[in-house]
């Protein structure tokens, strides 16, 4: 399976520590007017763009300012700095802005229904969307899915008709983009989803803290926490079957209670929902927003970074999104989140599953007839 889209610039794949130092120093000087004082290690760094991305103290300070109740307004200086920094067209500085996308998108989506000015956040999100729209040039991102109905190009065939083996069976991973000058409620999920796709394209450069922030916001968006829905509850195959395929008989119920196990499970879910429905931050999760989020979580679970904290946060987010998919009875989301959760459990399980086709004892005698 191959993905068809434009090849991104190599500077996105490997962060440059030497280029654009003058731009980066100018950006740091403008940031010092907003967040004074800045860490000395940042102002004296020989690689200012790299330090902007990886300075943990600066990241906490910016995150703290973004979480303030009045952040996100059109006159917010920090939002203006993030917008101007991304518009510098320098890939390294753009990556610095993308590092804060999880908290920007998370706060924006959580506050979108509060009827307060979020023009600062919207300007940043629209800048990311416009950048990706220009880069794609009106073309969708497609995936070549193998089709077993076509003959393989590596085997001979006696068919005299047209050889369909070279025809592509394309599936659209991300549709073509239309320019947008404002964030309307009907386009909000698409615009943020595209911004997350851009984040995913540079995720190998992102600090672990940024990825963990994204995982935490996924839990908030889903509305289910791990203490409400345990790992065993989510991953148990019998429970999933009873929840998704309930029948009135409920053969697995208690004999004397008159209540089936399926009804008990639904009751458990509904009792948790009373609390979660009132939780601030729970949002609609259409596929155009959920799909890029799952791709990011997939990297966090199976990526090359060996961080136990990151993998646990990604697994917790996967559980929450899976519980949300079950609640919404969304088959596409159930399949995607369930598969991601299963893969995540396999990645964290050190004991390999039993394979009946594997010969485990090579010293035993082979009996022949």
From TrEMBL:
Q: Name the InterPro entries on file.
A: Hyccin
- Pfam families for the chain: Hyccin
The protein's location, in the record's own words, is:
Cell membrane; Cytoplasm, Cytosol
What Gene Ontology terms describe where this protein resides (cellular component)?
cytosol; plasma membrane
Q: What is its main location?
A: membrane
Please report which protein family the annotation says this sequence is part of.
Answer: Belongs to the Hyccin family.
Upper lineage is:
Eukaryota, Viridiplantae, Streptophyta, Embryophyta, Tracheophyta
Tell me which Gene Ontology terms the entry assigns under biological process.
phosphatidylinositol phosphate biosynthetic process; protein localization to plasma membrane
What domain of life does the native source organism fall in?
A: Eukaryota
Arranged from A to Z, the UniProt key words for this protein are:
Cell membrane, Cytoplasm, Membrane
State the protein's name: Hyccin
